[in-house]
């Protein structure tokens, strides 16, 4: 049971093994804990309680319900998602020990039988993409431990990619589910805004924040999505016919300045899809970069200064936003917080223009694109470069040039985030240096089930089975 290859890591396989008696929940959890301890150097978790998890596993076995729904299956929750079981600190010192009532998405998963396997490490306050955290330490990419796993849901991605947990739940504001999924070689899904309730998430921006499932397969993301959305899961077996799929390829902006290996693997992926019968439409999305830039940070930074104080008042009233700012230990986050608390706060007039004028234009631009081009989704590299060295928090090297780390990594994931449309990242291959690369498809607002059905079809073409 201690060898990763001997343990079934998809939700479906776990359900079948539990039902058949091939595995007991307790024996599986023992293997999970043993593997987690052996890979402790990856720093995937902020908080675990192995004895509590073992007891929960024994209770599932005694109930005879192992394998029904999510009964007996441990999930890694990002540390900004309240579970009511383990503390959700958003990986920042001021919120250490914050055990509040379960978020709606966690409650739905736990009601289906899921176990809280642990709280995943993350970029402090979800304000970054490296998961190099001055408070909780850096999470390490299991493919190369000198590289970042991405963020801000980096610990969840590490736990899944390293074979510790079968799946997990992250949050995504500008790419924080899809980015680490791409850099760690797993699947990550950001739903349409408002598909899942956001109550019980430590917030950045109510307009942009959403939880999102992360797993080894699209099917597993579909299983979690149906539960998180409070929907009947009867439709998740449907997989789109490859010949019925029509994808837009927006090369301007989304294919600009790619790392050569990302470019090579992305072009290989497009050729595989075309050869498999998928229709590709070369068509750009007008002004997508300009519209995204004009609404991205104005919305996130203004709403953060409203949403976090409201969250603190509701859940940890003895903590103020000043306390959070004063105790931020990651240099990039500490500097941003200090700026926001002084004269660097986003002006309300800029925010109002972004939320009332620019964002609707961006949303309409996407809607018009899908309609006029007649495509189901757009496809593009999730990130413009693979995982970079831990410590490159301010700048990264891309094509012999040092560029700002955060905007470089969120370049492709951010527009869909601001438009509020669904997107999913799929692994497509490894660079010559052995680092995973992901490709993303974004669909029209509220096309989540169709997008997931398409993603499962594409996954069969890419057939990425490598593991670190």
Automatic annotation (TrEMBL):
Give GO terms: molecular function aspect only. Answer: mandelamide amidase activity
- What domain of life does the UniProt record list for this protein's source? Bacteria
Entry keyword annotation includes Hydrolase: yes
Tell me the ranges covered by the Amidase domain, including all copies: 29-452
> What does the record give as EC number?
3.5.1.86
Query: Which EC main class describes this enzyme?
Result: hydrolase
The record's listing under InterPro entries reads:
Amidase (IPR000120), Amidase_CS (IPR020556), Amidase_dom (IPR023631), AS_sf (IPR036928)
The record, for PROSITE patterns, names: AMIDASES
A Pfam cross-reference name: Amidase
Q: Which UniProt keywords apply?
A: Hydrolase
* Name recorded for this polypeptide: Mandelamide hydrolase
Record gene name: mdlY
């Amino acid at each position: 049971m201690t060898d990763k290859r001997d343990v079934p890591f998809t939700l479906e396989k776990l359900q079948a093994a539990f039902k058949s008696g091939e595995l007991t929940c307790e024996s599986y959890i023992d293997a999970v804990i043993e593997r987690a301890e052996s890979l402790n150097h990856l720093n995937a978790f902020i908080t675990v309680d192995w004895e509590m998890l073992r007891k929960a596993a024994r209770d599932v076995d005694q109930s005879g319900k192992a394998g029904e729904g999510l009964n007996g299956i441990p999930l890694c929750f990002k540390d900004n998602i309240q579970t009511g079981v383990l503390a959700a600190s958003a990986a920042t010192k001021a919120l250490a020990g914050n055990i509040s009532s379960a978020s709606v998405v966690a409650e739905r998963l736990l009601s289906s039988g899921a176990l809280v396997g642990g709280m995943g490490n993350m970029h402090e306050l979800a304000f970054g993409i490296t998961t190099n955290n001055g408070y909780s330490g850096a999470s390490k990419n299991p493919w190369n431990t000198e590289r970042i796993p991405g963020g801000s849901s980096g610990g969840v991605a590490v736990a899944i990619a390293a074979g510790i947990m079968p799946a997990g739940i992250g949050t995504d504001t500008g790419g924080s589910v899809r980015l680490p999924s791409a850099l760690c070689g797993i699947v990550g899904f950001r739903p349409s805004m408002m598909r899942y309730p956001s109550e019980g998430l430590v917030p950045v921006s109510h307009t942009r924040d959403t939880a999102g499932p992360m797993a080894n397969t699209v099917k597993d993301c579909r299983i979690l999505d149906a539960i998180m959305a409070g929907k009947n899961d009867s439709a998740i077996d449907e997989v789109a016919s490859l010949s019925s799929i029509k994808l837009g390829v927006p090369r301007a902006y989304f294919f600009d300045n790619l790392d050569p290996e990302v470019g090579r693997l992305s072009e290989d992926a497009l050729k595989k899809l075309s050869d498999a019968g998928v229709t590709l439409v070369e068509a750009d999305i007008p002004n997508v970069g300009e519209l995204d830039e004009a609404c991205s940070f104005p919305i996130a930074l203004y709403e953060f200064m409203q949403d976090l104080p409201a969250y603190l008042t509701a859940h940890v009233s003895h903590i103020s936003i000043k306390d959070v700012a004063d105790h931020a230990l990651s240099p990039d986050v500490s500097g941003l917080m200090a700026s926001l608390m002084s004269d660097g706060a986003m002006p309300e007039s800029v925010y109002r223009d972004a939320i009332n004028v620019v964002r609707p234009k961006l949303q309409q631009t996407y809607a018009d694109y899908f309609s006029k081009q007649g495509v189901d989704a757009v496809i593009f590299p999730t990130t413009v470069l693979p995982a970079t060295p831990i410590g490159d928090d301010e700048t990264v090297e891309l094509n012999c040039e040092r560029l700002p780390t955060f905007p470089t990594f969120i370049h492709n994931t951010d527009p869909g985030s601001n438009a509020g449309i669904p997107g999913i990242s799929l692994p497509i291959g490894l660079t010559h240096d052995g680092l995973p690369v992901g490709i993303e498809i974004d669909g029209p607002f509220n096309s989540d089930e169709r997008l997931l059905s398409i993603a499962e079809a594409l996954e069969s073409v890419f057939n990425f089975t490598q593991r670190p």
